[in-house]
UniProtKB/TrEMBL annotation:
Active site location: 10, 70, 142
Similarity field: Belongs to the RuvC family.
Residues binding Mg(2+) 1, per UniProt: 10, 142
Name of the molecule in the record: Crossover junction endodeoxyribonuclease RuvC
Gene field: ruvC
Organism: Methyloligella solikamskensis
Binding site for Mg(2+) 2: 70
Length: 174
């Protein structure tokens, strides 16, 4: 079985993190990570185009086999949630246009998969990403979160049991 290249994406309007890993059975290897940033002084439509173009360049350059995106959680600011949802739509569109299926994971499912608890803090997630991918060097917390999303997908992608677990994790996160 050949290694599978998985890109995890942490959507954001200001900063979208991405992280690429290779999964070869139980072995995970860090490939690359980074962030794409939109210009906050521009109109929303321009910012969404900036995310689209930058993320498209990353995926075209790195050629992932599979993609995973974090689901949006609803917060108290409906406008901010709507804008984040629009950025997330762009983030899901980019790999889809390349013919990749896009898996989705709730934030609590990512935490549970990487740390073991659905209510882990950012510092715990980043520490476990560093432990699981010792060569990783994410430049932002968004890139580290994207690597955690890719790790979650690597753990959940292969078996029927894992697919059932993914469904249970998604239900538990709600």
């Amino acid at each position: 079985m050949a290694a599978i290249r998985i890109i995890g994406i942490d959507p954001g309007l200001r900063c979208t993190g991405w992280g690429l890993i290779e999964s070869d059975g139980p072995r995970l290897a860090y490939v690359a990570s980074g962030s794409v940033v939109s210009d906050a002084s521009e109109a929303l439509s321009v910012r969404l185009r900036q995310i689209f173009e930058s993320l498209s360049e990353v995926l075209n350059r790195l050629s992932p086999d599979e993609a995973a995106v974090e689901e949006t959680f609803v917060n108290r600011d409906a406008r901010a949630t709507l804008k984040l949802g629009q950025a997330r739509g762009v983030v899901m569109l980019v790999p889809s246009l390349l013919g990749l299926e896009v898996a989705e994971y709730a934030p609590n499912a990512v935490k549970k998969s990487v740390v073991g608890t659905g209510h882990a803090g950012k510092d715990q997630i980043h520490a476990m990403v560093g432990h699981l991918l010792p060569r990783s060097a994410p430049d932002t917390e968004h890139a580290a979160d994207a690597l955690a999303i890719a790790i979650t997908h690597a753990h959940c992608r292969t078996s029927v049991t894992a697919r059932v677990l993914r469904g249970e994790l998604a239900r538990a996160a709600r």
